[in-house]
Amino acid sequence: MDSIDEKIGAGLIRIGAMTKQQVSEVLKHQKAGDSRLFGEIAVDLGFVDVDAIINYLKSKNKE
Asked: Which of 2, 3, 26, 48 has the fewest CB atoms within 10 Å around its CB?
């Protein structure tokens, strides 16, 4: 998979910021109708902080 196409959940797992179980929990919230962005839900649940998401996005843009 091209890094540009990488989903944020997979990327956060790849860099060690989140676990697969945490990503699954965020996706469960989205499937249940939570319309917020993945990162917003993950931060709200306490799985990751905003800095980790920003760092992931910055690293992704460098590739």
From this structure: 2
Q: Which residues contact 11 (CB under 8 A, 6 or more apart)?
A: 56, 60
What total number of domains does the chain contain? 1
d(CA 28, CA 51): 23
35-47 residue pLDDT tens = 999 999 999 999 9
Distances (CA, A) of 38 to 7, 10: 10, 11
Per the structure, the complete domain to which residue 46 belongs is given by 3-62
Confidence of residue 58 (pLDDT cuts 50, 70, 90): confident
CA distance 6 to 11: 6
